[in-house]
Automatic annotation (TrEMBL), chain A:
Keywords: Centromere, Chromosome, Nucleus. The gene is Cenpm. Its main location: nucleus. It comes from Casuarius casuarius (Southern cassowary). Pfam families: CENP-M. PANTHER family: CENTROMERE PROTEIN M (PTHR34436:SF1). Coiled coil: none annotated. This is Centromere protein M. Gene3D superfamilies: P-loop containing nucleotide triphosphate hydrolases. GO terms for cellular component: chromosome, centromeric region; nucleus. It is found in: Chromosome, Centromere; Nucleus.
From TrEMBL, chain B:
The gene is Cenpl. It comes from Casuarius casuarius (Southern cassowary). The keyword Nucleus applies. Its main location: nucleus. Keywords: Centromere, Chromosome, Nucleus. GO terms for cellular component: chromosome, centromeric region; nucleus. The keyword Nucleus applies. It is found in: Chromosome, Centromere; Nucleus. Belongs to the CENP-L/IML3 family. Pfam families: CENP-L (PF13092). This is Centromere protein L.
């Protein structure tokens, strides 16, 4: 399900399936996308931040188009205890690899992988990122 | 940090300079400038012979001069700036044949300790190169330098993020009355036809806004730059319902200087020349490292 911002319209609440993972997309070329994500984060229930949220940063291929400070994004990941993934959507290889990663994360978050919970996977990802 | 003598640096103002970063030069000596000028002149003449002539059908001799600009540096730790100029003179001797300046390029380093402290002895750090004139001469001069000093030239682009820093820093500078407006140019992405938005602000209003944002004089933080830009963006949005933060900032013009994201700069006031060069040196160094 794709949305340009949160909260999702309440009229369709009863028809909506369970949400297992929220991926917030930030375009490094657009300060506006960061502001939008920051505003939307306020509408997310705290329980999601136990491994069911991630930040997907796009447009990282071209350093000279950067309008968002990478430190600001890193801080966002820290504050909301969620992993930050970087990708370049324009390159097919990276696009496919990122989609596979997200799918894997989704499988874990929806409980389909026995022995691995969303929370344990989330902290695993964050610990390896710190190294 | 002294200000450069305005008379000596006046020729640098109000010209469009294309920016490059240059890796440290191996076994360069500022005592050999005359020799370098001779060697570069011979190299250019040889390239012309090979048929790589820049100006077709014109019989021109190209005279090369190398000179030092000792005032253009941040401290004594920095290598003095060096200017290379190509002038043309008709090869047919004429009484009043004038030399016409065709191309200028200068290397400089302002407060480049980050780089110069970390290079071995035989290397000279002049990480910033600025060129004015035909690009084909940059290619020829650049390839001579690369061959002679084992260095590498690379175009220096300026990201929108760095442009916002320049906008904030330069707006904060004190300028006299009748200073030109602060202008920001944004390019709107994802449209079938390119669209540029120009946002001009009265320089006193811009400075007044910056003065309310900046907490410590002489210090600028990322938060302050962000807040300054956010104020400008929301003001624009209130009037035009357009989110400038979703577009790409491509050019900043103030009374101090103007900068374009393709790596093009114009210095407008000699008083702030060193300050702008310091910022550009920093950008060049981060591109090199």
């Amino acid at each position: 399900h794709l949305a340009t911002s949160l909260p999702l319209p309440s009229e369709r609440d009863h028809l909506r399936p369970r949400i297992d993972l929220i991926a917030f997309m930030i375009d490094i070329k657009s300060k506006y996308s960061l502001k939008n994500v920051e505003a939307s984060l306020a509408h997310v229930d705290a329980s999601f931040f136990l491994g069911k949220v991630c930040f997907l940063v796009t447009g990282v291929g071209r350093v000279n188009y950067c309008s968002v400070e990478t430190n600001a994004i890193w801080k966002l990941g820290e504050v909301y205890c969620s992993p930050v993934l970087y990708c370049e959507l324009e390159l097919e290889g990276i696009r496919v690899a990122t989609a596979q990663r997200l799918l894997r994360m989704l499988q874990i978050c929806s409980g389909q992988i026995p022995g691995v919970s969303a929370l344990s996977f989330g902290s695993l990802m964050r610990n390896s990122a710190d190294e | 940090q002294e200000n450069a003598d305005p008379q000596k640096t006046a020729f640098l103002l109000r010209k469009q300079w294309t920016l490059y970063s240059v890796t440290p030069l191996y076994r360069f000596s500022s005592a050999n400038l005359k020799e370098y000028a001779r060697l570069l002149g011979a190299f250019i003449a040889a390239e012309k012979q090979k048929g790589l002539a820049v100006e077709v059908g014109v019989d021109l001799d190209i005279k090369v001069t190398f000179s030092s600009l000792p005032d253009l540096r941040g401290s004594d730790q920095d290598q003095a700036a060096m200017l290379v100029q190509l002038s043309s003179r008709s090869s047919v001797p004429q009484k009043n044949s004038e030399e016409k300046l065709m191309w200028s390029g200068w290397f400089c380093c302002v407060s480049g300790d980050d780089l110069s402290e970390n290079v071995p002895e035989d290397f000279t750090c002049l990480p910033l190169f600025l060129a004015n004139g035909a690009e084909s001469y940059v290619a020829i001069v650049g390839s001579w330098f690369q061959k002679t000093f084992d260095c590498r030239f690379c175009r220096l682009a300026i990201s929108p993020l760095n442009l916002t820093w320049m906008a904030a820093m330069w707006t904060g500078c004190k300028v006299e009355k009748n200073a030109s407006a602060t202008e920001l140019v944004f390019s709107v992405p994802c449209l079938p036809q390119p669209l540029d938005i120009s946002y001009a602000i009265h320089p006193e209003d811009a400075k007044a806004l910056w003065d309310t944002v900046q907490k410590t004089p002489g210090e600028i933080t990322q938060e302050e730059v962000d807040l300054f830009m956010d104020c400008l963006y929301s003001h624009f949005h209130r009037h035009f319902k357009i989110h400038l933060s979703a577009t790409k900032l491509v050019k900043v013009s103030t009374a101090i200087a103007s900068a374009h994201c393709d790596g093009i700069i114009k210095f407008l006031q000699s008083k702030y020349l060193i300050g702008v060069l310091m910022l550009l040196t920093e950008l060049a160094i981060s591109q090199i490292q």
